[in-house]
Structures are given as structure tokens and as C-alpha cells.
Amino acid sequence: MEKSTPEQLAQRQLDAYNGKKIDEFCEVYTENVVVMEFGTNKIMLEGKEAFKVRYNNLFEANPNLNARLVNRVVMGNHVIDHEHITGRADGNESEAVAIYEVNEYQIEKVWFIK
Predict the structure, then answer these.
(1) Where is the SnoaL-like domain (predicted)?
(2) Residues linked to residue 45 through DSSP beta bridges, in sequence order
(3) Got the DSSP string for 75-110?
(4) Domain-by-domain residue ranges, the chain?
(5) Which residues sit opposite 109 in a β-bridge?
(6) What digits encode the pLDDT tens for the residues 1-47?
């Protein structure tokens, strides 16, 4: 595993997400990844296995899913991405804001702002 900047890690996971490449997507995250709701820190997902199952199901149910980067802010070991999500099977579009906390190799924590 090679060292990466926070921005490189965020971009790598976004590219894999848009390509529905589940293994490449999951490689960017640590084994103990935690996904939380911003503000409450309520845990939505914990551990790479649960993470992989969740996103694999999402990709299978929404084969046209796409996240377009609207804005990205990088500060230290945190990346904040604002994305416009399209391609859901139900036809709904949405906005998403994710905050990624990274180490030199992978994403450790994610917060979603709802």
C-alpha cells in the first residue's frame, strides 16, 4: 500500500464509487472504518465487511449511480466533499456532504451531513 494525500484518497474512492468497482472502493478504507452521522456521531456502519456489503448492495440496486463532485475542501487530514447524486433506481437526485478523516494510506472515518 502506498502513501497518498488526503485528496488522492478522496478522489480514488469517488472514482471507484462512480465505476461501481466495489473492491477498489473498499481498498481505500481501513478495516475498522466507521461511518457516522455528522453532528450526532451516530454510527451508521462499522468495519470494512459491513461497509462492503452496504455499498455492494447500493451499486447492484442502482447501476447508474453517479456522484458528481460539486466542491472539495482539504484541510490537514480531512477532506470535505459536496456531491450531487444521480442515477438512483427511484429517479431521485440528492445532495450529499461527506467528511473523510484519513491516515497516510486509507480513509478511517466518514461523517455524512444530512
Answers:
(1) 11-106
(2) 35
(3) ETTEEEEEEEEE--TT---EEEEEEEEE-SSSEEEE
(4) 6-113
(5) 34, 101
(6) 789 999 999 999 999 999 999 999 999 999 999 999 999 999 999 99
